[in-house]
Amino acid sequence: MSKHFFGDTIVLLGRSLRHITRSADTIITTTIMPIAMMLMFVYVFGGAIRTGAESYVNYLLPGILLITVASGIAYTAFRLFADMRSGIFERFQSMPTARSSVLWAHVLTSLVANLLSLVVVVLVALLMGFRSAAGVSAWLSVAGILILFTLALTWIAIIPGLTAKSVEGASAFSYPLIFLPFLSSAFVPTDTMPGPVRVFAEHQPVTSIVNAIRDLFTQQPVGNDIWIALAWCVGVLIVAYAFAMNTYRRKIS
C-alpha cells in the first residue's frame, strides 16, 4: 500500500463529495422513494396490517432504512461507471497516486451519502410518530449495523460499476436488493406468510438485520439475530470486497 494512500483517498473523497453537493438531487432522489413507501404503508396499508406493535411506523422503519441504502448504492455504481467512461481513472493512474485510493474514495462517498439519506428518513419517521426509548448504546449498535450493511452493498455496487456496458446496467443490479426486504419481516411478520415464502423469508439476511435493528429500537433482547445479522454483513462485505478488488486490478492492469 502506498504511503500516500490515506492522503490521496482524502483528496479524492473531497472531489467526490463536491460532486454530490453540486447535484444534491441524488441524495433527495434516494430518500424520496423510501419516504414515499413509508408514507404509503403507514397511512394507506398500516391500518390493515397486524404486527403486534403499538405503532406500525415503529415496526416498519428498520426495513425502510435498508431500502434507503439499497436505493442509494445504485448511485455509487453510476458514479463509478461515469468515472470509468470519462477516462479519469487512467489520468489518476498516470499521476503519483495510490492505485486503490480512487476506488476507496467512491466507497467512502457512498457511505457518507447513504448516512445522510438515513438521517433524513429517520427525521421523517419521527415526524410520523416513530418513537424509541433506546439508549445511546442501542443507537450506536444500529448505526454500526447500518454502516456494515452499507459497506457490504457498496462493494457489491463497485463490481457492476467497473464492468457494466451501459448506465442502465450499472444501476439495475440494485433492483433485486430493493425488492429483498419485501420478502422478509420488514413489512409483516414472517409467520403470516405461506410455507415456501416463509422459509425463504426467515433464512435470508434482511430478516435477521431487520429483527436485530427492531429489537434494539424497542429495547428487546436481540438474541441470535444480531450475530446472524453481523455474520451476513461481514461475510458479504469480505466476499464482495475480494471480487471488487480483483475486478479493479484486472481493469487497471
From TrEMBL:
UniProt subcellular location: Cell membrane; Membrane
Gene Ontology molecular function terms on file: ABC-type transporter activity
Superkingdom of this protein's organism: Bacteria
Domain ABC transmembrane type-2 span(s) in chain numbering: 25-251
GO cellular component: ATP-binding cassette (ABC) transporter complex
Membrane topology: Multi-pass membrane protein
UniProt keywords, alphabetically: Antibiotic resistance, Cell membrane, Membrane, Transmembrane, Transmembrane helix, Transport
One GO BP annotation of this record: response to antibiotic
Residue ranges crossing the lipid bilayer per the database entry: 27-49, 61-82, 103-130, 136-158, 226-244
Family under the similarity heading: Belongs to the ABC-2 integral membrane protein family.
UniProt name for this protein: Transport permease protein
